[in-house]
Amino acid sequence: MPYIKEEQRICIDGEINELADKMISLGESCNLSESDIRQGVFNYVITKLSTSLIGNPKYSKINEVVGAMECCKLELYRRMAANYEDKKASENGDVYNT
Length: 98
Fold this sequence. Notes:
Elements: H1 6-29, H2 34-54, H3 59-92
């Protein structure tokens, strides 16, 4: 889960925000669309960060990083996408209740 202690967040949030700002600014300087940044550039950043954290490959390291990515994906969906989907189902009618 992404719920690390506040003092740990403070240590890294600035760098994360700086990286996000740099990624967004690539759109202007490298002629990339917002979609290009969210898909290609973000994928590249996650891949480079993951391989850097794994370093010398061992199953346990790969398993930890893949597990963290999977949990991150599930938590993002649970917290953001599910709420969005519920709102849209309420606005447009729930396809599962027809």
